[in-house]
Amino acid sequence: MSDTVDLLAIAAHRDDAELTCGGTLAKAAAAGHRVGILDLTQGETGTRGDAATRAAEADRAARALGVHVRLNAGLPDAHLANDEASRAKLVELIRAMRPRVVILPFPVGRHPDHRVASELGRDACYLAGLAKYGATGAAYRPFKLLYALAYREDPVKPSFVVDISDRFDAKMAAVRCYASQFDGATAAGEIFPTGQDLYELIRVQSAHYGSLIRRPFGEPFFCHETLEVADVLQLGVQSL
Prior knowledge:
Layout: E1 7-11, H1 16-30, E2 35-41, H2 51-65, E3 69-75, H3 84-97, E4 101-105, H4 112-127, E5 144-148, E6 160-163, H5 168-176, H6 179-182, H7 198-211, E7 218-222
Parallel strand pairs: 1-2, 1-4, 2-3, 4-5
Antiparallel strand pairs: 5-7, 6-7
Helix pairs in contact: 1-5, 2-5, 3-4
C-alpha cells in the first residue's frame, strides 16, 4: 500500500506523537483522512525498555489511533542532529509520504532530541520542495506546518485547540500501549512530575486545553501564519 498520507506527525521518539497529538491523529483518521507518524529514532538509548520493545508498542499504539502508516527514520536516539545526512533522509521520506499537513514538536524543549527534531523537520519540509535537491523522489513541499504545544510551560498562546473529546479514549489507549515507558511513571518527555500518576496527569492536561475551547478534552497547536476565517458567524468558543 502507498505510504502517502494527508496528515503526518514527525516525532523524535516512539510515544511522542501519542502524547502530544494522538487525539488529533485519531480524529483525522476517523474523519477519513490518511494519517501517518514518522518516528525519527528507535528509542535505543531510553532509560526504560529497548528498541525492540518500543517498536512493538508503537505498532499497537498506531492501531489504537487508526494510523495508516508508521515509519522510522533510524536516526540515532539522543544524538539527533540537523545535519546534511539527516536532512536528506527526511526529505526522501517526506517526498514518499507527501503530507499536506505536518505536525512538528515545538522548537523549545528540555530534551535535545525534541528541539532538533523540530528544526530538522521544518528544514526537511522546505528542502523536499526543491527540485534540484539531491534526494530520492519527486520534489514535494507540505502546505502547512503545525507545532504541538501540549505540556508546555512557555507563555505561548495556542493558535488553536483541537477538540479531541470523542477520541480521548483512543489517545489514552495508544499511550497505555507504552507500558515499558509509562506504567508507574510520574513524568515523561516534556511532562514534568506533579506527584500524580502519568496517565492521570495526561487527562488533567488534556482537560485544561479542552476548557480553553469549552470542551472536555483538547490538544493545543501553534502556527506562525495568521489563520484565515471564511465566515465569522461560524467561529466557535463563546466569548461572554
